[in-house]
Amino acid sequence: KMADQCESRGIPVINRARNLVNAGKTAAAEIISKSGFRTPRTLRILDMQAFRQDFNGMSVPFFVREDWGHGSAILRANTLDEARALPLESFKRPVVTELVDVRDERDGLFRKYRYFAAGEHGVAQHLQCSEEWITRGAGRVFTDATRDEELAYIARQDPHHARFQAARRALGLDVAAFDYGYDKDGKVVVWEVNPFPYIAFGRTTSTYRNVAIHRSIAAMLASYFSLARLPVPLKLRQFLEY
């Protein structure tokens, strides 16, 4: 209601509340796939008893997580016995998602690329390499090779910029971060979209990528100017240049 009141007065609203449901795992997978990306098959678990019998037709390995929100538990099942033992009751709105193998055959590492969108501006924000299939910052592998690879990624516009922008518009979001990897055939696999991504400067081993953080903040500020129908300052435009 507050957003409606703002819009009635010509005040732009960023990431309308009614559109946030589109960032849920099941809804986002369907919407993003229509933009030409592969998304893992993701299904709501509506009947926990029935799921333990047929697993919604999903084959192992797969994982279960919350449909809405980010940073919650992600539980993997490699066998049918493990799948039946999953504590589904601990979730509020569980979904099951197929596990697409994105391990790189060159070095055995998993890679997660992040494309950050703020309005029409896009930023290649980070490339995390990990020995774990869940590629989070705490488990990153830092070597000269991974640093150079990440520097090469953030130094230029993400190669899928146009498609991610189309997906952002389809989701009805103004600010969003897309996490993705590559399958064995080299096709993009988009894992999720986050409408409230955590953006922070590196302080120790990852300070080399702070240029991408500056660019991300500049993208947000530039989008605010554009939404307010104000000219984007030269300083911001320079930060956004690749």
Shape: globular
**Number of strand segments:** 8
The count of helical stretches stands at: 8
Average pLDDT confidence is: 95
**SS content category:** alpha+beta
What topology, given as strand order, has the largest sheet?
A: 1-4-2-3
Order of helices and strands: HHEHEEHEEEHHEEHH
Low-confidence stretches: none
Main sheet attributes: strand count, strand direction, barrel closure: 4 strands, antiparallel
Task: Report the helical percentage.
Answer: 25-40%
Work out the radius of gyration. 19 Å
Intertermini distance: 39 Å
Proportion of residues in β-strands: 15-25%
Describe the structure.
It is a single chain. The mean pLDDT is 95. The strands form two sheets. Strands 1-4-2-3 form a four-stranded antiparallel β-sheet. A four-stranded antiparallel β-sheet has the order 6-5-7-8. Helix content is 31%, strand content 21%. It has 242 residues and is an alpha+beta fold. The chain has eight helices and eight strands, in the order H-H-E-H-E-E-H-E-E-E-H-H-E-E-H-H. The longest helix is centred in the C-terminal third of the chain and has 18 residues. It is globular and about 60 Å long.
Give a quick precis of the structure.
The chain is an alpha+beta fold.
Index terms:
alpha+beta, 4-stranded antiparallel β-sheet
List the helices and strands and how they pair.
Elements (H helix, E strand, L loop, with lengths): L1 H7 L16 H9 L8 E3 L3 H7 L7 E5 L8 E3 L2 H5 L9 E5 L11 E9 L2 E10 L13 H11 L6 H11 L3 E8 L5 E7 L15 H18 L6 H6 L3
Antiparallel strand pairs: 1-4, 2-3, 2-4, 5-6, 5-7, 7-8
Helix pairs in contact: 2-6
